[in-house]
Design a protein that fits this description.
IspD/TarI; binds cytidine-5'-triphosphate; Spore Coat Polysaccharide Biosynthesis Protein SpsA, Chain A; two-stranded antiparallel sheet; 11 strands; globular; disordered N terminus; binds ligand LQXTBERG; seven-stranded mixed sheet; 27% helix; alpha/beta; transferase; 2-C-methyl-D-erythritol 4-phosphate cytidylyltransferase; 6 helices; ISPD_synthase_CS
């Protein structure tokens, strides 16, 4: 693993150290996987660096996360050779540090990011909030709502959205059934778990899981569902960029 120059180096002082981690509350950290290629997005390069509202998508994401005062620091995971953060201006607030340890899957990037976070001084019993670089419309108040709901929970949880539409099951391009949606949610991020528990769960579950909650579920846990916002969508397809830009413009007015 190589460490790219941090855009705001994490030192013990900057990370708001505690005298003895066993005697005080666990700290909270952000982890932003930023090593995807955005293959569904139609963008020329990795979608997280596409410019929206005057700056790269990931900088909007980091601005919102860094505004969460309870975060001790934010670990960003980029691909080997990614130089974007060498010239990026760090957001105000929680310190951001970057590791070029992206994996071939999102789960791999998160697992490597957890190791980087532990190397930076985080403890296994600390909380980590994993948040997609591609969810650039997250707000500090969404994140604080998740923290408030999960900080005293035994397992942790995630932001998620109840299904707004009727849910259909498909077979051969036609409706095979209408599925009861009363107990269905769309998983978002951040997803908040203890660093050690998440690390063990991801190792057990393997690379195929598409979110942190799935890894915890794999080891028999039931993460808490916390109501998110429809605006916290993941920029995935070509048409999502214009929608995200419109929301950012509306917020700026
Ligand atoms: N190997 C990977 C794959 C994804 N991600 C990150 O995980 C987040 C959510 O993933 P997704 O939207 O699926 O991003 P991509 O994998 O980049 O998109 P696609 O699946 O369309 O290629 C993104 O911030 C992405 O950068 C990552 O860090 N490492
Ligand atoms: C983690 C996630 O954002 C939850 O909705 C999502 O699963 C990641 O995206 P992917 O397309 O499944 O990789």
């Amino acid at each position: 693993m190589t460490q790219t120059p941090p855009i705001s180096p994490l030192s013990p002082a900057e990370a708001r150290p505690v005298p003895s981690h066993s005697a005080v509350s666990p700290r909270l950290w952000g982890l932003v996987p930023c090593a995807g290629t955005g293959s569904r997005s139609g963008a020329a390069g990795p979608k997280q660096y596409a410019v929206l509202g005057g700056q790269a998508m990931v900088l909007h994401t980091l601005q919102a996360m860094a505004a969460v005062e309870r975060l001790a620091g934010i670990q960003v995971v980029v691909s080997a050779g990614d130089t974007f953060f060498e010239s990026a201006v760090p957001p105000r607030g929680a310190p951001v540090f970057v590791a070029a340890c992206g994996g071939s899957t999102r789960a791999g990037s998160v697992l490597n990011g957890l190791s980087a976070l532990l190397e930076q001084g985080a403890q296994a019993q600390d909380w980590v909030l994993v948040h997609d670089a591609a969810r650039c419309l997250i707000t500090a108040s969404d994140v604080n709502r998740l923290i408030d709901a999960c900080q005293h929970d035994a397992v942790g949880g995630l932001l998620a959205l109840k299904l707004p539409d009727t849910l259909k099951q498909e077979q051969g391009g036609r409706v095979a059934a209408t599925v009861d949606r009363s107990d269905k949610w769309l998983a978002q991020t951040p997803q908040m778990f203890r660093i050690g528990a998440l690390q063990a769960a991801l190792r057990a579950a393997g690379d195929a899981v598409t979110d942190e909650a799935s890894a915890l579920e794999f080891v028999g846990q039931s993460p808490k569902l916390v109501e998110g916002s429809a605006q916290n969508f993941k920029v995935t397809y070509p048409q999502d960029f214009a929608l995200a830009a419109a929301v950012l413009a509306a917020r700026a007015r």
